[in-house]
Amino acid sequence: MNELVNTKNLVAGILKQDKTARDSDDYLYYLVCKEKMKAAGDNIDGISFRDGLIYRSFYGLPAFETVRRARQKIQAQNPDLCASADMQGMREMKEARFRAFAKEE
Length: 105
Hints:
Elements: H1 2-17, H2 19-23, H3 25-39, H4 49-54, H5 56-59, H6 64-77, H7 85-104
């Protein structure tokens, strides 16, 4: 539970400082991993993408979905940290498409 709170706080700090991270979950995840590894004395830019995925637990990196959900919750509670209007529209459109897809199954 403590790890989830730490991840949420880290995500909130990044969203406050970096507008690009508000629009891109991939970029946000990179920044979260970069900070986590930096705190552990490692450099994310020094490992391959493959190793980052395979050894995610070894490096203490959160799951991508955890970061995405934290971002979603933070942005719902803090409109000033929301994505750009274009990105919000795109996310809503993707969510609607996925919901329609899920109902078809």
